[in-house]
Amino acid sequence: MNLPERTGDQRRIGVAIEVPAPYGPRLQEARAVVGDPLASSIPPHITILGPTTLEPDEVDEVEEHLRQVAAAQHPFMTRLRGTGTFRPVSDVVFVQVAEGIAECEALEARIRTGPLSRERRFHYHPHVTVAHDVPAPALDEAFENLAAFEAVFTVTALHMYEHGVDEVWRPIRTFEFGVPAPVGPPRDDTSERQRS
User: Fold this and answer.
1) Structural domain contains residue 195
2) CATH of the domain at 80
3) Among 2, 19, 87, 175, which is least packed, fewest CB within 10 Å?
4) Could you tell me the residue range of the domain that residue 62 belongs to?
5) What pLDDT is stored for residue 181 in this prediction?
6) Three-state SS for 127?
7) Which of 141, 106, 146 is nearest to 126 (CA)?
8) Cα R_g (the chain), whole angstroms
9) Among 98, 93, 94, which Cα is nearest to 81's?
10) Is residue 5 part of a domain?
11) Residue at 21 is within a domain
């Protein structure tokens, strides 16, 4: 995993959507089965803001920024379905986000403003990593084992994670969405399915 350097009292954080039980534990177990050493140290999640270092005096401002972003967001349904890969660019296999893509993209754009304005290293692509930097046969196994995986859940909050000195990512703050979910006829998600 590519992590930004951390010096002195800096803290390394990330912002993500938690994959809830029973789906999260199942994906974590699937990651462990293929021998990914990060399986026990990274809870299954959809990244909104990747690993980022903060000075101690920046933390309060960042948390207030995340509160404001979350307060303006309504809950939304997310569907995970099937697998994809970033190979050959990166040795990663992931579970695809089939619904909820537009909402994840909007959250990512809003979060990357103000105190979290950062340049992207890659184009943002919401996904849930299930194998990273393991041998090719293990990547193939993860790809095949989860090809039929599907999960549907409602996202109601963002989580800020911190990377500990023990190399484990832990959720340290939850920012609940503040706008009620829209009520109306089912939306047409055809365009999102075509993009996934």
Assistant:
1) no
2) 3.90.1140.10
3) 2
4) 11-177
5) 66
6) strand
7) 106
8) 17
9) 98
10) no
11) yes
What does pTM read for this prediction? 0.87
Note the Cα 108 to chain centre separation in Å: 10
pLDDT, tens only, 6-63:
888 999 999 999 999 999 999 999 999 999 999 999 999 999 999 999 999 999 999 9
Count of the separate structural domains present in the chain: 1
Mean pLDDT within 109-131 = 91
> Is residue 32 a contact partner of residue 40, using CB atoms and an 8 Å limit?
yes
Give the neighbor-by-neighbor strand order of the sheet with 76-85.
127-132, 92-99, 76-85, 150-155
Band (185; pLDDT cuts 50, 70, 90): low
Measure the CA–CA gap between 105 and 6, rounded to whole angstroms: 27
Q: How far apart are CA 31 and CA 36, in angstroms?
A: 6
DSSP assignment of 57-114 equals: GGHHHHHHHHHHHHHT---EEEEEEEEEE-TTTS-EEEEEEEESHHHHHHHHHHHTSG
**Residue 3 counted as domain residue:** no
Q: Report the C-alpha gap between 152 and 178 in whole angstroms.
A: 21
Rounded Cα distance, 126 and 73, in Å: 17
Relative to beta strand 92-99, strand 76-85 is antiparallel
Residue 58: C-alpha distances to residues 12, 40, 73, 116 (Å): 12, 29, 23, 10
Q: How do the residues of the chain divide into helix, strand and coil, expressed in percent and rounded to 5?
A: 30, 30, 40
Q: Using alpha carbons, select from 42, 56, 48, 62 the residue that is nearest to residue 14.
A: 48
**Sequential DSSP letters for 171-191:** EEEEEE--SPPP-SSPP--HH
